[in-house]
Design brief:
Number of helices: 11
Structural class: alpha+beta
CATH class of the largest domain: Alpha Beta
Shape: globular
Bound molecules: alpha-D-galactopyranose
Strand order of the largest sheet: 4-3-2-1-9-8-7-6-5
CATH superfamily of the largest domain: Aldolase class I
CATH architecture of the largest domain: Alpha-Beta Barrel
Number of strands: 27
Number of domains: 3
Strand content: 25-35%
Low-confidence stretches: 1-22
Largest sheet: 9 strands, antiparallel
Distance between the termini: 40 Å
CATH topology of the largest domain: TIM Barrel
């Protein structure tokens, strides 16, 4: 969801801290500035309250997320605490300021100077009353799960106009566009602020959003953008708070086709009970914008979003926190989606987050599992890698048309787990032509010999045709379902009829 390390961008080198030994008052609010190559200066705050030996506090990351300081205590002259995500803070007075050293559980460290500021500076703006709930109409979009690319997983704040143009080029030249990928989506860090009329203005990384949209459209593709219902995005950039109608009109004027709308700092102002109303406000504004704009809700699975997202004209909604490019994160998300299957269907989809295929943190078998599982789940297929330099192996996974056909099946029924046996999970998904997609997933690190009666997935007899979607070959139907060896963390994906 958030990576202080990623977003702080402090220099990891030179950690020698010359800490002066002096007792000083650390109570109050302290700000750490961060100058980004986008021209933005972002703010992170530390709040500390000390009563004798007792210390407590919190960290407001990117002016967006307030997270508690856990186990805060004095250690000599230092105050030490940690936060979720295994970030370990060591704070020490240095003149009128605080010297802050952060070490990360996963390795690495950062150092920064925090200056005292009045508490009012980090206060959230006044709450605007949420609109009265009503049911918005379906916008007619995303009849099958949206397919495209999003900048966040690979580029984070390094996304700019050039990356987006080159990605559009690569989407076409790699064959991905022909395989069905269409949205080229800019995630967080494109925003500068607002002009005198309150219009949202991109920062220097995006000199002309309309021209960029024209370019992407000239390739036969569509352009997506990102914002938050809060005053700032998760990365600390300008949000949409109080400018919903105006921003929707701006997006339409630029030629934007897709909006990912990320809760972030709205959580400082509203409660989970307000989620639906706040997303409705933007769904309504998009509906009146005069342009077809896919509405992607990003709220990390909070507030039982799947029960109401279609009523705010939502086309997809995040069901989990942020994915990471490793087996543990991907498999934990992917194999825990089955209970949400009843909520997916044409026009409205569960979103277990964007793809990590090709980003380097998983094996080829694990990436095939990732892509197969997301396709079985009727998930949006948003590539999250660098399309400009991907290997042929990565492209062959992302552009596997047999697997994409499962994801994009017109029936729109999401897979459920049929059974689990010794760490092998078999998931099935009914398809529009009466066929069944069957995924045999091996969650064990070692390869497994599989072989199950067809009855275990509800078939009375062996099917007449069986296609192996990774070998791209029809295989002779066997007396049992997949008499096969499944690689460790691997998959055999079949289409049977
Ligand atoms: C949140 C979202 C991510 C990404 C970042 C950008 O963490 O869940 O997908 O958009 O914000 O700051």
């Amino acid at each position: 969801m958030r990576s202080l390390r990623h977003l702080l961008g402090f220099h990891a080198a030179g950690l020698a801290l010359a800490l002066s030994a002096q007792a000083a008052d650390v109570n109050g609010v302290w700000r750490m500035d961060e100058h980004k190559n986008s021209g933005a200066t972002l703010h992170n705050y530390i709040v500390l309250r000390q009563h004798g030996e007792h210390v407590e506090g919190s960290v407001l990351e990117n002016s967006s997320w307030e997270i508690p300081a856990l186990d805060a205590r004095l250690e000599g002259d230092d105050i030490v605490f940690h936060t979720e995500g295994d970030w370990n803070f060591r704070v020490r007075p240095e003149g009128a300021n605080l010297r802050v050293l952060i070490t990360y559980g996963g390795g690495g460290s950062d150092e920064a100077l925090a200056v005292p500021v009045p508490a009012s500076e980090m206060a959230a703006p006044a709450r605007l009353d949420p609109p009265t709930l009503r049911e918005l109409p379906y916008n007619g979009l995303a009849k099958t799960p949206p397919m495209g690319w999003n900048s966040w997983n690979h580029f984070a704040e390094r996304v700019d106009d050039r990356v987006v143009r080159e990605t559009a080029d690569a989407m076409v030249s790699s064959g991905m566009a022909a395989a069905g990928y269409v949205y080229v989506n800019i995630d967080d860090t494109w925003e500068a602020g607002r002009d005198a009329q309150g219009n949202i203005v991109p920062n220097r990384k995006f000199p002309d959003m309309k021209a960029l949209a024209d370019y992407v459209h000239s390739k036969g593709l569509k352009l997506g953008i990102y914002s938050s219902p809060g005053p700032v995005t998760c990365g600390g950039y300008e949000g949409t708070y109080g400018h919903e109608e105006q921003d929707a009109r701006t997006y339409a004027a630029w030629g934007i086709d897709y909006l990912k709308y990320d809760w972030c700092s709205a959580g400082r102002i509203y409660h989970n009970a307000d989620l639906r109303a706040i997303y409705q406000r933007m769904g309504d504004a998009l509906g009146r914008s005069g342009r077809d704009i896919v509405f992607s809700l990003c709220e990390y699975g909070m507030g039982d979003v799947w029960t109401w997202a279609p009523k705010v004209s939502g086309n997809l909604w995040r069901t989990t926190g942020d994915i990471e490019d490793n087996w543990k994160s991907m498999s934990k998300i992917g194999f825990n989606q089955g209970h949400l299957a009843p909520f997916a269907g044409p026009g409205h989809w569960n979103d277990p987050d964007m793809l990590e295929v090709g980003n380097g943190g998983m094996s080829a078998d694990e990436y095939r599992t990732h892509f197969s599982l997301w396709s079985m789940l009727a998930a949006p297929l948003m590539a999250g890698n660098d399309l400009r330099s991907m290997s042929a192996g990565t492209r062959d996974i992302l552009a596997n048309r047999d697997v994409i056909a499962i994801d994009q099946d017109a029936l729109g029924r999401e897979a459920v787990r049929a059974f689990e046996d010794g760490g092998v999970e078999v998931w099935t998904r009914p398809l529009a032509d009466g066929a069944l997609a069957v995924g045999i997933f091996n969650r064990n690190a070692d390869e497994k010999q599989a072989g199950f009666p067809w009855a275990r997935i509800g078939l009375a007899a062996a099917p007449t045709t069986v296609r192996d979607l990774w070998r791209h070959a029809d295989v002779a139907p066997d007396a049992s379902l997949c008499t096969c060896v499944v690689a460790g963390h691997g998959v055999v994906l079949l289409r049977v009829k």
